[in-house]
Amino acid sequence: MPKKVLLIEDEGRLRRLLQLVLEDAGYDVKTASEGNKGIALWQAWKPDVVITDLKMQPVDGIDVLRHGNRLYPETPCIILTAFGTVTTAVNAMKQGAYDFLTKPVDHSHLIEVVQQALIERDKSQKTEHNMIGTSPEMEKVRSEIRILASTDSAVLIQGESGTGKELAARAIHAASTRSSGPFIRINCASIPRELLESELFGHKKGAFTGASKDRAGVFTRAHGGVLFLDEIGDMPLELQPKLLHAVEEKEIRPIGGGKPHAVSIKILSATNQDLEVMVKEKRFRTDLFYRLNTMILELPPLRRRRGDIKVLAEYFITRFAREFGRQEPEISKAALDMLSGYHWPGNVRELRNVMERAVLVCLEPKIKPHHLTESIQRKHKNEKMETRSSLDLVAKEQELLIAALEQCNWNQTKAAKKLNITRSALRYRLQKYGIVKSPP
Q1: φ/ψ bin of 162: left (φ > 0), alpha (ψ from -120 to 50), beta (otherwise)
Q2: SS3 of 255, please?
Q3: How many helices (H) and strands (E) does the chain have?
């Protein structure tokens, strides 16, 4: 499928000319004559690249750029500007624009910039370090990531399974001065205990049976970049002193001898376990705990950021439609209501899997409730039944109260006695339901 380019330009002749240039280069192009229309088209069409004029009324290119940064940070936005507003364009780049082109636009250079923007976009999608969401909780996370990326201090990333801890680690790496260096991840829970020390610190040839040559560990391979220790709560207790030394001194010694050597790395670690409880239970060293959590990033569960469910669902729909070579479906209000009401024990990872399946099985223009997983449909059905049952109980209680009052000629004392409740309890229920005697 051809890549999609959205062009927002208020000057009609230039807009048409650039559209033809881009279409001749093989792109699928849609255009808008002003910022508001461009933003609406961006939301509806989900382009791969956006090109927008800087000076427009009433919504200018900066407003378009801010919209993109908030909702579609993975989509590169290229600014078009007249020569006299280059300074403004440079400021736009500081706010997240991919590049800017001065008018009159050189056509070959335009195509080069679009091609490079698509390459960078693909790289970004592969590493997946975009933190999607517009909720206050996610704005707070993004703000904290910028702060955490500005230092070499160790960071402990905490959150439930599926909240995006590795995503956050990659975002910290991408925003740091070490972004040109390696990002090395090791899952402490998935490597056998007897091999973990070698994975961390490396080994010399002959250090143990099967060590046929020298091997560098992740501390060495991460030199100049970031080392991400995932599932740190599963680190064996006997290895924690050596890990503490490596984290404190930024110095490691491979298994089997050799001189210790220094490494320059930023340490990130993550866990969905409560390390403080593990420290109290003596399953995690106190000194290592305090060394790793110099700074803490807490990722909220999806149920605490329900305002992001729609944005995330649309993001995954776009992504998987492209991946499967499908026409991108919309999501129906009924399906979105189901997603919004679900409790998401698996968080964003579960939502990702749900939308992948929905895009795969949906052969209609819209994703509907029956395209969602059985667990979500079942939960929604059970909640409706519970609500209906609750309403039925309320109706029956009201009927019982009125029947007792009518039998007692609306004498509240007698009716309360008949119902085996106190008079004050009866009066409370009458006020609660607004029950009063109808006039004769």
Answers
A1: left
A2: strand
A3: 18, 14
The beta-strand segments (E) located in 316-431 are 330-331, 366-367
For 232, the token pair is: 């740190």
Identify which of 333, 344, 352, 340 has the alpha carbon closest to the alpha carbon of residue 308: 340
CB 131 within 8 A of CB 142: yes
DSSP 401-418: HHHHHHHTTT-HHHHHHH
- Is residue 182 within 8 Å of residue 225, measured between CB atoms? yes
Q: Which CATH number fits domain 136-298: 3.30.413.10, 3.40.640.10, 3.40.50.300, 3.40.50.2000?
A: 3.40.50.300
Please, what is the end-to-end C-alpha distance for the chain in angstroms? Answer: 75
Whole-number Å distance between alpha carbons of 44 and 146: 30
- Return d(Cα 131, Cα 180) in angstroms, integer: 20
CB 89 within 8 A of CB 60: no
Q: For 202-259, what is each residue's pLDDT tens digit? A: 877 777 777 778 788 899 999 999 999 999 999 999 999 999 999 998 898 888 877 7
Number of alpha carbons in the 13 Å side-chain half-sphere of residue 227: 27
Contact 273, 142 (CB under 8 A): no
Contact call for residues 226 and 184 (beta carbons, < 8 A): yes
